[in-house]
Write a structure and sequence with these properties.
heterotrimer, A mainly alpha (about 375), B alpha/beta (about 375), C mainly alpha (about 300), B: about 375 residues, alpha/beta, Rossmann fold, 2 domains, seven-stranded mixed beta sheet, five-stranded parallel beta sheet, 12 helices, about 40% helix, C: about 300 residues, mainly alpha, ABC transporter involved in vitamin B12 uptake, BtuC, two-stranded antiparallel sheet, two-stranded antiparallel ribbon, 11 helices, about 75% helix
Amino acid sequence: MIGLLPDRLYQDRRIAWAAFGVLAVLLIALPFLVEAGLGRTWVRILDFAMLYVMLALGLNIVVGFAGLLDLGYVAFYAVGAYFYAILASPQFGLHLPFWALLPMGAGIACLFGVLLGAPTLRLRGDYLAIVTLGFGEIIRIFLNNLNAPVNVTNGPQGINMIDPVRIGGHALTRPIEILGVQISGPHAHYYLFLGLTLLVIFAAIRLQHSRIGRAWAAIREDEVAAEAMGIHTRNVKLLAFAMGATFGGLGGGLFAAFQGFVSPESFTLMESIMILCMVVLGGMGHIPGVILGAVLLTMLPEALRYVGPLQQELIGRVAVDPSDLRMLLFGVALVLVMLFRPQGLWPSPVRARELRPDNPDQVRQEQESLYDAER
Amino acid sequence: MTSKLLIAFVLGAASWSMPTWLSAAGTIEIGCVAPLTGPQAHLGKDIENGARLAVDAINASTPTIGGQPVQFVLLVEDDQADPKTATVVAQKLVDEGVKGVVGHLNSGASIPASRIYAENGVPQVSPASTAVAYTNQGFDTTYRLMANDSQQGKALGQYATRLGKRVAVVDDRTAYGQGLIDEVVKSVEASGGKVVGREYTTDKSTDFTAILTSLKAKRPDVVVFGGMDPQAAPMVRQMRTLGMKTPFMGGDGMQSAEFIKLAGPAAEGAIGSSPGLPLEQMPGGADFTKRFGERFGKVQIYAPFSHDAAVVLIQAMLRAGSAEPKQYLPELVKTQFDGVIGPIAFDAKGDLRDGPVTLYEVKGGQWQPVETIGGPAAK
Amino acid sequence: MDVLLQQLINGLILGSLYALVALGYTMVYGILELINFAHGEIVMVGAMVSVSVLAALTAAGVPVALALPLALAAAVVVCVVAGVLVERVAYRPLRNAPRLAPLITAIGVSIVLQNLAMIFWGRQYLSFPPVIEVQVYDVLGATVSNIQILILIVAALTMGGLLLLVNRTRLGRAMRATAQNREVAGLMGVDVNRVIAATFIVGSALAAVAGLLIASYYGIAHYNMGFLLGLKAFSAAVLGGIGNIPGALLGGLLLGVIESLGAGYIGDLTGGFLGSHYQDIFAFLILILVLTFRPSGLLGERVADRA
């Protein structure tokens, strides 16, 4: 787990292991703590937070590592979700097993990542953003309308009664008692998601510190120089899209199994922007930051629900409807973060220096070289 | 790592200071969910107000259960007409211990939420969801007080075919619009008509000139639209500008005061259907309009239905002598009650038995009822 | 035949609206190389303001001949203020930042404007007061209304005026210089900040006009109407050649016609496999195709490099 904890901790092995031990215990106990303190709804929200961590880490590869602004990321999420939904529901009467479908769904999403990334390779940042946005919308529109002539996605009605995850014949949505402890649906899903999220985090960290990861960083900084150094920018960019899409597809499959229902309404542009917000707010390119961003931005809107009754108690009436505030605050957060702390809430030290260099001359030099390269 | 610990502690601490909604002795929570934000907020608010009127009236009559006085509390949540939000607020209501739910509005929200209510045994009465799938899932907790899309589409199709054999349809590619129009198409063909063209739009569009021109070329006798009033209004306006004099019909999503306001003079002659009887013809209509008007103003569409939904739930509890869903669910099934909307009884799936559908026409800038199809009067 | 003519007319009108909005995008992109996502929302603000002011004035008994220009003026003022504010607060500090930052900020600003409008005006659809008598004329079997003709005229006049501004005035020369090379223009004595502000002022004023026209044509205004419109208008600008003013007009008209014809005929063309439910895709498809095969657009010289 290199890179997640401060360097000091590695100096003494025992402290490192102790720290991990505490973390492990905390993660295992978390749903029980949350349920005791806040209620089962929050465990469910915690599950969604895990999902979004996966998605945000996937987008982080594209935006944070490789520097490609993808505004249509939700398309891969949708592909993964619908793949699972179509093959594990009454839609076609197929009920393929979860453990086969999930990797396959991730694989299909990976393919889509390559397909959607291919046309964007030569495009500059702004155009890349719009084109990926377009792709996201196109996928959503197709999902919404592929119910005639052949009913593939059941159109706007969505696909319902999706098979839940089954482990050893037990459906995860049903409560179960283990060793005298009541494990409810959201609880069980938490552990499943936790395991997979840890896998995703591990994969992301290994990618970041590999040759590919360094190639991504090179492209992000200066594509022309990277090309000059012998990096195949085309392949590396496609790989970024592919890996990002794979994580997205994974999250999508889990989402379908968890919620039991998918419809095109869950895969709108706003979702893409939300996930982007998580990456940007948390700390672009920095894995712990992205995790923080994802967890925060999943929890906060739910916490905002309490603002209404809070206003009621404090001033006797609800002056501003909290649900109005939700998206407004996201927009404001995006703007403020970009203006004042573009490195995000929890940046990597390297990136913080890049985005907010101390030396103004260095800024000017960088800008000029970038400027010349574009002419 | 310490930050994670901190977060857990903060969350835990915060929870104790959060305003607790859990009951004091003698309070029974009833959930009410509808879109309180977004394009349908006016309809969601209508649902909330109707339920609130019912709950307050019942509370004022000092009800008792098992000899103990009780008060009913309405817990209102906003599902933003979004399926995911609907599941989250459904879980939230279940966790807060609601004994019954009035909601949701959109079928796309009711259906996923119903799974959560069903898994936890909480009865759900929807005042507005019309998709057939809602009661088709095999749950014993799903009920509705509106004729479903199958009944509504049938009525629309029958009436349309009477206006002319060549019918053109447009749907807005939402679960509601598409479901309704599918039924209309079936009904038109069953009544001997012909669907000469089918076009599509979205629930965010405003420009329909292309598809309307395309339909105009097919010379329809009537155009039926499945969707909501913000699309229906510009659509009928553009029809008139294009020189199409064809009658324009739509479902309950269009049959609202908003439609007339937004469409202006072009609204004249439009026909909208609505499950249930017209407010004035409802047995409890006049009284309801007065009571509602004093407190909340004009009835949009669904207030009488959400009112009766709350009443039906509470009455079942009172009859069973218990607010526990397991106890009062059998009473809910046996409901035979004359509500504001008319006689209420449920069939085996939870649909309203003999749900009537009324057709209205805009005359002189107002919706006037024209005909009622189905319903006990027809028997 | 009259169907085709009607679809063409529909397309031209829709296209003129796209063109009006596209002008704003193309001007800002020409100078700042930034996609001003918020521009669509400025159009929405213009529509909302003009509708509210018009409704209030006509309710107060002010005659239409006076109320309409007043509403337009109000919309222009509010839009210009909003546009300049956005530029100063959100874009100027990031003028030299890496490309990603202003793009994300633009998205954020767009969301903020949308939600502010929702909080201020509510979530209801606003209705344009029926003050303009709709007259429908018959043209070779197709129908055209007076509002539609008005839209065409306004679009043409605006473009003409803009071309005059850019090609025949000092400000226009300064704009063109800044668009070519910001630093050197500054060296030549151009006050770059003022030129950029002027660009936003003109763009926002255009947005206000577009907003009023759209609201009067469709009869409604809503806080949600700006985003998709903005995206399509941007696609139109790219189609015509970003940074190129006649290109924006051409791109807009073409996009409108393609969308109309596409929505009208796609069912027949694909034998029922695809239908008008795919009509929103056209704008995006065009964008992707143009950027893949002819990134400079139809009339433009600026090439979409990779950077």
